[in-house]
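# step 3/5: fold
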Amino acid sequence: MKLIGNALSCERNGRVVFSGLSFAVGAGEYAELRGPNGSGKSSLLRLLAGLVPAMAGTVSAEPAGDLTLPQLSHYIGHHDALKNVMTVRENIRFWAQMLGGGEPAEALHPFKMERLADDPVQLLSAGQRRRLSLSRLLAAGRPVWLLDEPMTALDVESQATLSGIVDKHLAGGGIVLAAIHGEGLRRPDHIITLKGAA
C-alpha cells in the first residue's frame, strides 16, 4: 500500500494553512510531520482522516480496493474521543465494535490499562486517558495510523511502549504519519515539512 498526496491545499477558518503539498509514504514507512505551530500539521492529519475537505489537490491510498482512506485509517488527535461516564472497558469495547475489531480486552494490555478496566474514564489522569486513547490502535486492525502529537502526556515507559507498537505495525506493512514536536517515535523514513502559507 502507498499513501499519496498530490498538490494538497487546506483552508481553516477562512485562511489557507498550507498549499501545493505533495508526498508519498509506502508500506512499512514512518513519516513525521514537522513545522511550527499553526503550520497545518493537525489540519493535514484531519484532512487525511476525512474530517476536513481539501481545498485543492488529491489524496489516495493505493491499492485501496472498495475502502476509502478514512476507512483504512486510525486517527488519534489532540482530543481523546472518550466517553467520561463509561468505564475504560466500555470505551474500548465501543471502539472495537465501531471499528470492526476483535477482542477489546487484549487492546488494553500493552499500555497496562486492564487494571483500570472498571474505572470510569472521568477518574483517569491525563496520561491514563492518553494511553486508553492510543489503545484504540490495537482494538481493530487498520493499515494507516494518523497520530497527532502522540507522545503528549505519556510517561517514559508508555512512550517506549508506543514506539514498540509503531515498530510492530510498520514491520507488518503498516503506514504511520505522526505530527511531532521534539523527539519522534523512531527514525523517520520521511519528513514532511509544513511551513504554513505565506
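# step 4/5: annotate
Residues 2-193 form a domain with the Rossmann fold fold (CATH 3.40.50.300).
# step 5/5: archive (pending)
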